[in-house]
Amino acid sequence: MSGVRRGGRAVVEVGAQVSFSGARWQVVALSRQGFHLVGENGADQVVLAGHLFADPGFAVVGAEPVQTVPQWGLFETAPAAAREKAMAWLRHIREVESGLRGGAGSGGVMRAEYDPDRWTLAEREQAKAQELTALGFGRVSWSTVQRMRLAYRKQGLWGLVDQRTARRPKGGGGGGRQDERVVAAVKDVLRGQRGRSKGTVKGLMPLVAQLLKDRHGGTVAMPAQATFYRLVNQLARPSDHPANRVRSTPLTDDGRKFTPTIALRPGEQVQIDTTRLDVLALYSDGGLGRPELTIAVDVATRAILAAVLRPAGTQAVDAALLLAEMAVPHPARPDWPDVLHIAHSTVLPQERLSSLDERLHKAAARPVVVPETVVVDRGKVYLSKAFTGACEALGISVQAAPPFAPTAKSIVERTFGSLNTLLWQHLPGYTGSDITRRGQDVAREACYSVAQLQDLLDEWLVHYHHRPHEGLRHPTMPKVALSPNEMWAALVCVCGYVPVPLSRSDYLELLPVRWQAITEHGIRLHHRTYDHDLLGPYRGQDSGVAARGGKWEVHTNPHDVRQIWVRLPGLGLAEIPWIHRDHAHQPFNDRTWQYLQTITTRHTGHDRYEADLAEALDQLMRRAHAGQATAREEYLLARHTTARTLPPAPEDESEGEVRGQERNMAAADGEEDSLDSLDQDAEGAAEDEEAWGGPAAPVAGYGLYDAQEEADKW
């Protein structure tokens, strides 16, 4: 057996051939965390998984090269038209390579002219060239398709972007292309006309003109009528174009028959959704409110893989971090009874699992599943760049539910009802499912904070996974209802495999992006100065990225602000430390930094004020170590002492550090307060000394297809 791919990444299995230490080996056995390898000359050895994956020459023989995480920050600087064309090329390149537009393993109907079993790669490229020419891509030749395919294999999505549009301007504004603001206005007007009676294309012109005037104050000129008609023809979907008839079936009845969702292995399909909790909670400001609950339910085992409460406004970053909580063991609380620990479970194969992953020794007795496909609704949170970008990089397919089809996520919807009947209705402050079921003194009964409700939920979930579920049946015992833990134990031994972990550069690319200027002092964020000799040649210089005003691409770790990473020419993402990093003996986040500003006297001089804050941080950590910190300080520090920082450079990695790569971003704390910095305005970051929590800005990252458009074909 040669190298295979699961979930978009290479996998090491028994029989696979790998390159290690300059030689070629075959995997003949897996034992705990070790691989038994046999070489071509008959030599054999046992290598720990961490050392195998960390070897610079490691590769799975026969597997396609792993696509590195695209440069999302750089990709977003390309014009909208260039990004959309790259997305269109992506689907065609995937079809040429695998026969399916969604890529290998995506399902769907394969067109005969792109069947890899019938035609060579060159013949499929020639067929694609003829198809694209007929579709209006211009005169596309076989060599053009081949060039785009090779560029994608080498550079990923960035290789499909027209590099002429990404060149640095030489003084002009790059005329000749339609104004992106006009394109955005046309799309918004077409979207707003959905479901309404159809008119004419000419009737859209005053609507677009009024929208441009409202947004830009008359500074954006409308295109000529002929140009506007062509623009509408290019941008409008068949159902949105005024020349097409409105569909005859009602919007709420698409005629599709309900089919129960079936999954045969853990993680094959995970359904995610968010709803308002039917329990009033006490907020930190003393007010009352209904928090938002986001859960992820595995279809095969009915296990609730992750459940996170937020006071309000679940954000895209919260949803992306939800993916991480699914794939790592959930730690058991010290005050929980032993029966809730996986080490004392009589159902789960804890001895076998613990030998494969040492993190399971102190974990809760609940399933751990790495999703292959996640099904989400059409909310902005789940179709955002942060969420879809994280899923693409981790090899997780994102499937948006079809419009007006609530049964597409029936399992997660039903799970919300189970939570209400089994847990929430027994708590003080329960509001009922609607106003007619609400008591008169609900607000007076409410006594739990969001954090306390989260603690109750975490402990209750362990009990839930031991409870028989009527939807889970074993083939040999169809009359016996299994619990999620029993079903997971039965399936994980059959479907388990070892995924190759992400590299350090992948994690850096996945970190949140902001754009900053490099001044003579370095880079300043929230009264912290980051500086290094590497910044010397670039102080006061323009980055050349005109779309960001000449600022530089900066990646930050929201849970460890002791360093940042700046993309420098020829160096990639270079690590730049905080000038007072020696004062920080452990990771800290902006929430702790904000607290220090409230207890430190502010000075007019920035350098002196920053030094005082660094000294206050040092004293805070010393008080915590000596057990003299206040309750609030202990709470702040406890929230991020378990947060993982970025994995070290490959040459410094040990076995444990390589394992840390697999769960680096996964185990990071997801408190809403520590993520505020992800949503601050990147353009206003140069004035970071001002108030905390500025206007929100998009998080970097871009999905590799339009989830809404793909869902229409589901």
Topology:
Blueprint: E1 4-6, E2 9-12, E3 17-20, E4 23-31, E5 34-39, E6 44-48, H1 49-54, E7 59-60, H2 72-75, H3 80-98, H4 121-135, H5 142-155, H6 180-192, H7 204-216, H8 225-235, E8 270-276, E9 281-282, E10 288-289, E11 292-298, E12 304-310, H9 316-327, H10 350-356, E13 373-376, H11 385-393, E14 397-400, H12 410-422, H13 442-445, H14 450-464, E15 469-474, E16 477-482, H15 484-495, E17 498-499, H16 504-510, E18 513-516, E19 523-525, E20 528-530, E21 552-556, E22 563-568, E23 572-577, H17 590-599, H18 606-625, H19 631-638, H20 655-663, H21 707-711
Parallel strand pairs: 8-13, 13-14
Antiparallel strand pairs: 1-2, 2-17, 3-4, 3-7, 4-5, 5-6, 8-11, 9-10, 11-12, 15-16, 18-21, 19-20, 21-22, 22-23
Helix pairs in contact: 3-5, 4-5, 6-7, 9-11
Features:
SH3 type barrels, alpha+beta, 21 helices, globular, disordered N terminus, 5-stranded mixed β-sheet, 714 residues, 5-stranded antiparallel β-sheet, 23 strands
Description:
With 714 residues, the chain is an alpha+beta fold. The protein folds into 5 domains: 4-60, Roll (SH3 type barrels); 78-165, no CATH class; 180-235; 270-496, Ribonuclease H-like superfamily/Ribonuclease H (Nucleotidyltransferase, domain 5), CATH 3.30.420.10; 504-687, no CATH class. The chain is 32% helix and 15% strand. It has 21 helices and 23 strands. A 5-stranded antiparallel beta sheet has the order 6-5-4-3-7. A hairpin with a 2-residue loop joins strand 15 and strand 16. The radius of gyration is 27 Å and the shape is globular. It starts with a strand and ends with a helix.
